[in-house]
Amino acid sequence: MADILVIGGGAAGMMAALFAARAGAEVLLLEHNEKLGKKIYITGKGRCNLTNLCDREEFLAQVPRNPRFLYSALDFFSPREMMALLEQAGCPVTVQRGRRVFPASEKASDVTKALSALLRQAGVTVRLGTEVRALAVEEGALRGVRLADDTVIPARAVILATGGCSYPSTGSTGDGFRIAAEAGHTVLPPLPSLSALETEEAWPARLQGLSLRNVTLTLRRGEKVLYRELGELLFTHFGVSGPLVLEASCHLPEAAGGLRLSLDLKPGLTAEQLDARLRREFAAAGKKQLRNLLPALLPLRLAECLPALCGFPEGLTCSQVTGPQRAALVARLKDLPLTVRDRRPLTEAIITRGGVSVKEIRPGTMESRKLPGLYLAGEVIDVDAHTGGYNLQIAWSTGALAGRSAAENLKGND
Ligand SMILES: Cc1cc2nc3c(=O)[nH]c(=O)nc-3n(C[C@H](O)[C@H](O)[C@H](O)COP(=O)(O)OP(=O)(O)OC[C@H]3O[C@@H](n4cnc5c(N)ncnc54)[C@H](O)[C@@H]3O)c2cc1C
Fold first, then answer.
1. Ligand 1 atom closest to Cα of 179?
2. How far is the C-alpha of 381 from the C-alpha of 383, rounded, in Å?
3. In the structure, what pLDDT confidence band is assigned to residue 94 with cuts at 50, 70 and 90?
4. Over the stretch 18-65, which tens digit does the pLDDT of each residue have?
């Protein structure tokens, strides 16, 4: 019998297995894919933004929901410790813009290789192609796990690290939510997070592929500002995407339809400054068509589209622009409105929001409050963060803490 079974060989599961084995436990890691860490390969566009070199408070500011749940896990295993672990395993790392940390090779596969080597050295047994269907529970006590072929593998403790349900082709199919619910856990409904947004308006499709830098995006529910940030936005065939939109999506309420987005295309200028500039430029441009002047202010494709969005007649010249029309143009440049229809589907989201309620997990050990001997780690838990390496660090930290706690607890029971 293994001391500890780990379900899921992703970021959290590998770390849990490593820390449990290093603490002296016999560990069996069960993964239904044909290889470990399949999702890690696609992180950071194949470069793996594996953590963020910031302190704990800065880190927690990037976690929109339940940040305090992560205090102990981050104290136990911090971004610096993750970087040191990889360096010691022969995978040097590099810190880039925004303190994002990548493997120096910029190959996500090097992270998985380094972790796989550490698992071998620590004596973890890995069984690939093995799907866990349920926990084996007898008279309220955890006995091990039941596989898809109905065999039962006994164990003294189980760590559930099955991830969320975004990008299911990587193996994260949401099984853990069902498994945890069967064990009596509350599972908050999975929702796409770090997700692109579909808009009611069709015009973004005309600008598909156009990326705007240094614009301010504001997300509002009624008058309330839910999110406002300066950054980069991308127009797509369905609406909007890019870093600003992905981050804004973390701040959407469950029902996102009908929420207002507003783009400030000229955040460096006040409306008055912009109006004065337009007045000067229109006077100098005379009979030049407005759409030919605007590229001085905006990317060409957007400049061509803006007069129509303001409701101006085709071929309007600068000298024909009236005062109210100039005011309307300034208003559009400072507040280009869009209406959210929905998030893109969960299968396309970078991360799953929702999952096992943090109220039912002991933050100091990651042990279930519902079923002693069950530990949880990674995206299966209801915590998610902005982009920047935070989500993987959540997996590393909660995994490490779950692994060490499970092993230490068994020692205490010997
Ligand atoms: C496109 C993309 C890019 C990303 N880029 C970044 C980035 O650069 N930086 C960052 O911090 N985060 C990034 N993320 C998020 C990050 O990948 C996740 O937060 C992280 O992988 C979660 O780790 P996990 O171990 O909890 O879950 P997962 O990595 O999903 O691992 C879960 C594992 O469990 C296995 N499993 C599931 N069910 C069963 C079962 N029944 N039996 C056996 N095995 C099972 C799965 O096959 C999988 O291997 C990205 C995500 C995506 C989709």
1. 41
2. 6
3. very high
4. 999 999 999 999 999 999 999 999 999 999 999 999 999 999 999 999
Nearest C-alpha to atom 20 of ligand 1 is from which residue? 392
Instruction: Verify whether ligand 1 is closer than 6 Å to residue 163 (CB atom).
Output: yes
User: Which residue, by CA, sits nearest to atom 27 of ligand 1?
Assistant: 163
Long-range contacts of 97-102 (CB under 8 A, 24+ apart): 98/52, 98/388, 99/52, 99/53, 99/54, 99/388, 100/44, 100/49, 100/52, 100/388, 100/389, 101/49, 101/50, 101/51, 101/52, 101/53, 101/389, 102/44, 102/47, 102/48, 102/49, 102/50
Amino acid at 266: K
Confirm or reject: Cβ of 118 under 6 Å from ligand 1: no
247: its two tokens: 């981050």
- How far, in Å, from the CA of 350 to the mean position of ligand 1? 9
353 Cβ contact partners less than 8 Å away, ≥ 6 residues apart: 65, 190, 191, 192, 193, 250, 382, 384
Q: Are 10 and 399 in contact (CB under 8 A)?
A: no
Q: For residue range 173-196, what is the model confidence (pLDDT) as tens digits?
A: 999 999 999 999 999 999 999 999
Compute the distance between CA of residue 267 and CA of residue 247 in angstroms, rounded to an integer.
Answer: 19
Average pLDDT over residues 225-239: 97
pTM score, whole prediction: 0.95
